[in-house]
Amino acid sequence: MLEHLKVSDFGTPKRESEQEVTLEIDGNQVTVPKGTSLMRAAVDAGIQVPKLCATDSLEPFGSCRLCLVEIDGRKGFPASCTTPAETGMKVRTQSPKLQELRKGVMELYISDHPLDCLTCSANGNCELQDMAGVTGLRNVRYGFDGANHLKSEKDESNPYFTYDASKCIVCNRCVRACEETQGTFALTISGRGFESRVSPGMDEPFMESECVSCGACVEACPTATLQEKSVIWLGQPEHSAITTCAYCGVGCGFKAEMKGNEVVRMVPWKDGAANDGHSCVKGRFAWGYATHQDRITTPMIRKKITDPWQAVSWEEAIGYAASEFKRIQAKYGRDSIGGIVSSRCTNEEGYLVQKLVRAAFGNNNVDTCARVCHSPTGYGLKQTLGESAGTQTFKSVEKADVILVMGANPTDGHPVFASRMKKRLREGAKLIVIDPRRIDIVKSPHIEAAHHLQLRPGTNVAVVTAFAHTIVTEGLLASDYIAERCDDKSFNEWREFVSRPENSPEATEATTGVPAADMRAAARLYATGGNAAIYYGLGVTEHSQGSTTVMGIANLAMATGNVGREGVGVNPLRGQNNVQGSCDIGSFPHELPGYRHVSDTTVRNEFEAAWGVSLQSEPGLRIPNMFDAAIDGSFMGLYCEGEDIVQSDPDTQHVAHALEAMECIVVQDLFLNETAKYAHVFLPGSSFLEKDGTFTNAERRISRVRKVMPPKAKYADWEVTMLLSNALGYPMNYKHPEEIMAEIAALTPTFSGVSYQLIDQLGSVQWPCNAAAPNGTPTMHIDHFVRGKGKFIITQYVASDEKVTRKFPLILTTGRILSQYNVGAQTRRTDNNQWHSEDRLEIHPVDAEDRGITDGDWVGIQSRAGDTVLRAVVSERMQPGVVYTTFHFPESGANVITTDNSDWATNCPEYKVTAVQVMPVTQPSEWQREFSRFDKVQAELLEQRHAAEVPGK
Ligand code: SF4
Ligand code: SF4
Ligand code: SF4
Ligand code: FES
Prior knowledge:
The protein is of the alpha/beta class. Helices cover 30% and strands 16% of the residues. It is built from 30 helices and 37 strands. α2 crosses α3 and α9 (347-361) runs parallel beside α25. The two termini are 28 Å apart. The relative contact order is 0.11. FE2/S2 (inorganic) cluster binds at residues 51-54, 62-67, 79, 81.
């Protein structure tokens, strides 16, 4: 296990330069890239210069004057953090004069600092304390009686960290972290001279300011001024392990800092390639759900969902589930059961679930929640480029000149990547946003989109085709690139198609709602602005033409030569932590690991030989097909690991009817979620802190998840799947998830070089990782596309069946918010609720006024699928005719309203387009009343759980 309690700090950021300079520091020769600070060069020479205001994640500021050095031939004592190294310099970092100056600086700091080191929460982990020691400070000549800040009040408003102004040394690191690392600009230094103090917003408490609680300032603070409350409560950590965030597809690396089996804090890992030491409020602070009292740690069974739960031993629960599955198959046939595995699970868990379904159930009825988010990405990118994955690293955005964000809201959905992107935009890259809603990145501090194409929901295909029309008809194609790398025939057909007058921005303006001139200007910028990178999200995929838009995006990138190097590419921003991985390892009903179709006899033969079973050659049921088959009476048993299909899938009432029709539902989860309320067997799950494994993020980066505490319910999730498989008569005997990864690698060509050893060695690895790319593949399609020649595909716009009518005149679109995550099962059980404690409906002032709705009113939202009630937020972020909500709270019933429309190729639901009516109301909807009743009944049935001593637990 990696131990990283102390990370060395180089003081100033790394500089990249082809030129090098050689100098002498304290008699040691050192060579560094041009632009490197003396402070950093000294660290390279093995010398730590005292410092307080410098840290290597931030540009140097030169305020504390502790890092002074002497340079031969130069007057005075320059600050080593702000002085670049030059060839031939002779530098001294230690001398009696420097010692005296540094002591003087420290004396001033300490004279205005509480002398409570022994009881301070940062004791032993405080840079001020360290520097007092390093400089040899023994007394303070000025005494402690002068003017000071020792009685300053603490700001405790943020649930996760405190601001204790009495300890602030005004080093400005927090302010710079908020600006440079996070890009929020929430902090300033208010007042002058002695009065200077750090202040959120206009001297507001943190919680009332623009602060998004990312923790970058806490991380940067060298004292206990900004300190995690968990450290104040629990004390300094004793040991740590590197692991990966269990929330979004950015896949930030974290150092879980522990005391025994208790997490003291999660510190973003400086060497984490996805996040470079940054984080957001979820990964950094919202881990308390893992030990929440709602966790169910005892297996439970019941015959009917109207019966009380019975707590039983693992043996009994697994035995009951296995016997039920066997009974159902005997009665209804081999294909009458299946499995769903969440993309929150590890790769190893996902692999075992699909193996269980294919080898032990004997069918291909396995699916994953990628079905409802990025399945069109898998399909669309495979068709055009040849591989079902994003093309770049996140870091690649640092080389982009034009950034096109389509149907994604990175500051809320992928916050750490958004910070990286915002940094590049502040450096001058141009931004194009294609989104029905005015998302934050359209205009934020020091950033303004060059174009915001505020299209009508459901018209993405018309927009990408009109973009292509502009590029082709205005002669902006990358002709040499296309001639060399793309398939001629498909290109010529595509060019003819997009050039047609009916695909022009002018002809489609009435459909898309985007003024033709804006569309043309944005397309020109994308095609001619230098390196152009596309980032897209669920606003692209969750449509009836989701796959078509993905292919349209790939067409644009190929047509302009923007695939195959850094700074460009086609980049799906994946929703959940392991969406990429769960698709990679065969969780879809038609594909074995590595995206190989089940009908491919050669591939099937390999798996049959390795697994010792014969496999079905026909694809199994997708999630929506499982529901339909359940209602038809042919699908009667489900094993559902980590996924809450009742809350997350569209048309909730249809899902609930399907589950009610089944005879045995086995749910494996941390909590009694909405799906578990329809279950017959509950198998306790394990959180990411309780198991080993790997997650694969949106960059194809495979990172380790490391167990830092024992599973609360005895078994990790992968062990539970093994128990079930063994009980069904198909033996699985892995001793550790490492063996599962070894099996994946042995059977999957793109993973053949992947091993835990390699990940430990490199920190993480991006697939393909094999003999051709032993250390992985950061950028894909470099010399040629994975499929050979890039294939252009015709993108004919077909309007969604979901149309506005007099009865349903508005379009509802859905999304997420920073503080909550997906169905909210994790974040709702943390203090993140303080930012967002309910789902609300955003509505444009014109639509609100037409209906007599004011901010905060309860409004009923009705679609042809169902109706629900939410509180309104009147907001100009929306365009007239479009309303928006999130789906983090089960009682909101956002998915009661969404319909069963789905992507033509993959069945990904059309969450983003639902025709609705919105009206003021005074009471909950009928569905909500029924939800409350059912919820109460299920809570009582849980309460009545048989509490007899449980053998074997
Ligand atoms: S927590 Fe993040 S957003 Fe808030 S003040 Fe600190 S750096 Fe800025
Ligand atoms: S709060 Fe911390 S980082 Fe910010 S100025 Fe004060 S001591 Fe420095
Ligand atoms: S950006 Fe995503 S992966 Fe990173 S800390 Fe936040 S939720 Fe976790
Ligand atoms: S560390 Fe260089 S001036 Fe503060």
